[in-house]
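2 proteins. here.
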Amino acid sequence: MDTNVYVTFARDNLGIEFKDIDLLVTAFTHRSYVNEHRKTTKEHNERLEFLGDAVLELVTTEYLYSNFSEPEGILTNWRSSLVRTESISAAALRLSYEPLLRLSRGEKRGSERARAQILANTFEAVLGAIYLDQGYEVARRFVTDELLVTFKDILAKGSWMDPKSHLQEIVQSEEGFTPVYKVLSEEGPDHDKTFRVGVFVDGQIRGEGVGPSKQAGQQQAAEEALAGYRNSTV
């Protein structure tokens, strides 16, 4: 992809005139792409991701510390909700990162979950590139404008809470029952199993989830059940 595409993207989508556009190109370069283009591409985005992760945590922590007086445990949970894969991959999607990803042919055919992880990693790598190219204040402003603005919505929905805990709180408050989780099916060999889990309230299934462990399946099932509760109140 032509470098000018990244120049235009930085100006129009990020609102930044990069001094070293190669930093941004590297931020969009997945390890798999380097493996397929060894003669023309030498560096992937994992070092920038490492840096961006630290910048993201600092900016988010500074914001929460400066604006809220809750105890450490709650601030930690709030920070986790802001920087988790789902939150930052959604920000990357809003900013139209996906068309600029430099991936191998195999990664381009990857699962939705794998793509979300790649987008989240790229968000951190781009942040690392912004920090190196523009400095901390520009990086902080970028995180504030693109990620921290979602915090009011996170608080309103209660999505900062662990999904199972949040679901239990709602179900016990509104219906007087405790959610029950059951494994509906198991697939795959012992070393690579996939579990389909259902969450039931008063004998009725309210959500299903699939994951590489029972716990992961339970979390997804709880999230689906929570979505049902939110939709019923709209």
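next one coming up
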Amino acid sequence: MILASHRVGSPDAPHLIVFLHGIYGSGTNLRTLARSVVESFTDFQGLLLDLRNHGASLPAPEPHTLVACAQDLADTFAALNLSPTALCGHSFGGKVALTYAASFADSTGSRLRSVHVLDSPPGPSAAAPTTAQVRHVLSVIEQLPQPAQSRDAAVSQLENFGLSPMVARWLATNLTSTPDGLRWRFFVPGLRAMLEDFWVVDQWPTVFSAPVLIHLVRAEKSLVWTEEDLTKLAQAATRPNVRVDVLPKSDHWVHIDNPKGLLQLLTAVLRDIL
């Protein structure tokens, strides 16, 4: 599948960094981060993608798995005649980036040198403290009557299902106008399948053996990491192909909570790989 995309920065820059958003989002979620990276490090141009079943990348063919997401990246790069130097994925997008590295990092013609994983534990996450919350949000999305007649009405309904005002307002930004009202900009059954795969896939083997630099960024206040993940994170930090950073003063939304600190971490590694 060819994914919807948006370029940022100079098309003449010799290196490409690709940004992959989290579940329920779209490429625009990381636009500010992408612009900051290419403005401060002009050797790079950026590519923002809408992952399958999100934004303008729908409908997507089955199966809705991480492997399919990685193949979407490969198909999109081939269609655009691009070969990325770096991938940067937040949350769900981080595990997509690792899955791509597992299958395509050492393929013929690949220029990939680094994968930046932003607060996305590589291991199975069914036991993570926040997984129950994500499941609840998905259940609410599935129950919300469609079409919604107004964004405010949708926010009220989401709050009535028990979501916080902040989460409800953020989700409502994913409603788009249609002739009969507002509908989700994502394919809900596809999201459920993608999450079910995300929760069970283990990409720690890729972290330990990838032929490229793996940069793992853990948010200091994040609750998405299990004790097993933290143990493996410490082990990974000793590997020559892995760099581990903790982003201070940040919860899971690293690009919002501490954008300056995140930019410093990313650009430091990008300089090291060139």
